[in-house]
Amino acid sequence: MAKREGKAEDFITHPAHTDRAKTVLKERESLGDRIRKARELHELTILELGDRTGIDADVLKRVEANKMIPPLGDLVKLGKALETGMSYLISPGTDKPMTVIHADQRKATSRLSGKRAERYGYSYESLAPEKANRSMEPFIVTLTPAEEVQPSTHDGQEFLFVLEGEMMAQVGRQKEHLKAGDAIYYDSAEPHFVKCTGGKEAKILAVIYPGGQ
Hints:
Blueprint (H helix, E strand, L loop, with lengths): L7 E2 L5 H10 L6 H11 L4 H8 L3 H8 L7 H10 L4 H5 L17 E3 L3 H7 L1 E5 L10 E7 L5 E2 L6 E8 L1 E6 L2 E6 L3 E5 L4 E5 L5 E8 L4
Parallel strand pairs: 1-5
Antiparallel strand pairs: 2-3, 3-4, 4-11, 6-9, 6-11, 7-8, 7-10
């Protein structure tokens, strides 16, 4: 959902690299550490990773330094570029047939920090961080009022269900105003963005299929 800091925007797992990724991307490590180690595993510089993903190198530096959490759309791009999968970057998980996350175990992640997050960002909570080899990524996303929005494009598809508040979604040239109880499903390769409306936060269930797994 964003390419650069200050803009509110809205993986292919390569068989030859999957086992190595599992040994490199440890659960106890931070997201930034896992991205950095995966980049080093592929012998890529930050500039080269930026060229592959279209993400600004300065943003990637902040991400690897754990000073910024990338938006979900950028995690899709990073997972594909690093041939590890979005799920490994978020949380490698364990090989259990079923995992459960109780309400008091969810942890919110702000995509920016401080006041800029309140003005431009959103927060998201992974609903399946302990399940390995995930084909889908479910999140609870809290949208906050944003002054700027820019469309994002990446592989896969997305399903959104509005839990609280109201939001506007634009996919290509089509715009839809959604209220609690409404849902939308779209191809992420189309330029898209979502934002809350009415000056109030909105909470949504978002399920992302990164594609190609």
